[in-house]
Design brief:
Distance between the termini: 67 Å
Number of helices: 4
CATH class of one domain: Mainly Beta
Number of strands: 12
Shape: elongated
CATH architecture of one domain: Beta Barrel
Strand content: 15-25%
Helix content: 40-55%
Radius of gyration: 47 Å
CATH topology of one domain: Elongation Factor Tu (Ef-tu), domain 3
Structural class: alpha+beta
């Protein structure tokens, strides 16, 4: 009988123990649900106060260096990764051929100046001859007037009268000749002035070509991608090297088009580089590009042909760094570094320490 009673007690205890074991699991589920709701609410508020992307890279002003004239490289005066100043000599080409052209242009200019002076002297001589003929013609006209008066009275012979008439006609014709010479001399002066200007332009061009034998830095920066050595024959436009401006960096963040609804120029931004994960660069939105990256690619998509699949496009946003100084700032920047950019569409929120720590992990 005792055993039967003990079995009955055990059977009564089993449901109670099962009910006791179910309470912790329900509490755990409730706590987990509340935590999920809190996290979801926090993430919703977080997403409303900032726009973030990891598709971002560091950019800088890059000066492509190339030759403007064909020639043989005599000297390369810089090395890879060397910092150069503006107008510093980088490459020197063989100046022999351009120097000869400068000498030829100078000789042509001297000849043009001589011809121009000769034309001016010829004009002065023609004008002097014209003045002489003009004076003689005036005297011949007076003589003809007197001869006509005397001939009417038969005070002179017919021969004298004919000589006066002939002299007037000859000097009138000579005046026409001298005036034609003056016109021709003026035309020669105009032509010589044109030749002189052309010779001066050719000399200036030859001197400009000679100056191109010295390739100089257009700005301060670091030498990169050097692809030239002494003895190499270069052609115009062939890349010799590139100079990266170490004082003009910005970040280009490629946001999805659905993220740009609230982004405007002037908004605050934070930039974290993969190489410096613990350093925050502060900046602001300077501009939003006028088109998507695909629209300006070498082969833009042709959406009007074939089957069409909608793809979310990305639009570059330029972020300038506030107060960045390449000299004083410890973390140096380089073109192409990967970055993570967070833009604050409104005022940058100030969160309590636990929430800000949690936000930095998201």
């Amino acid at each position: 009988m005792a055993n039967v009673e003990d079995d009955g007690k055990k059977e009564k205890k089993e449901p109670a123990e099962a009910a006791g074991n179910g309470r912790p699991s329900k509490v755990f589920l409730i706590v987990l649900l509340l935590a999920g709701l809190v996290f979801a609410g926090f993430y919703y508020l977080y997403s409303k106060t900032r726009v973030r992307t990891e598709n971002a890279y560091v950019h800088a002003t890059i000066y492509p260096i190339s030759a403007r004239i064909p020639g043989t490289v005599l000297d390369v005066l810089v090395k890879d990764n060397q910092v150069v100043e503006q107008d510093q000599l980088l490459v020197r080409l063989d100046p022999e051929d351009p120097s000869l052209k400068v000498r030829m242009a100078k000789a042509a200019l001297a000849s043009a100046r001589t011809h121009h002076e000769e034309a001016k002297i010829g004009l002065r001589a023609s004008e002097a001859e014209d003045r002489l003929v003009k004076a003689r013609l005036a005297q011949a006209k007076l003589d003809l007037t007197r001869a006509e008066s005397l001939w009417s009275k038969r005070s002179i012979s017919e021969e004298q009268y004919d000589r006066a008439v002939t002299q007037n006609r000859v000097l009138t014709a000579q005046r026409l000749v001298t005036q034609a010479k003056i016109s021709a001399a003026k035309a020669r002066i105009v032509s010589s002035e044109t030749n002189l200007e052309n010779a001066e332009a050719q000399l200036a061009h030859a001197e400009l070509m000679l100056s191109y034998t010295e390739v100089r830095a257009p700005g301060k920066g670091c030498v990169s991608r050097k692809a030239v050595e002494a003895g190499k024959v270069v052609q115009p436009g062939a890349p010799l090297m590139a100079i990266v401006d170490l004082e003009d960096f910005w970040v280009e963040a490629n946001y999805k088009e659905i993220q740009l609804e609230r982004i405007r120029p002037g908004q605050q931004a934070e930039v974290r580089l993969d190489i410096y994960p613990d350093h925050v660069f502060h900046g602001r939105v300077e501009s939003i590009h006028a088109g998507t990256g695909a629209a300006f690619s070498l082969f833009p998509p042709e959406n009007a042909t074939g089957n069409w699949v909608k793809i979310v496009q990305r639009i570059p946003v330029k972020i300038v760094l506030d107060g960045y100084d390449a000299v004083s700032d410890a973390p140096p920047l380089r073109v192409g570094m990967s970055a993570e950019v967070t833009i604050y569409p409104g005022e940058k929120p100030s969160l309590p320490w636990p929430l800000s720590a949690l936000a930095s992990l998201l």
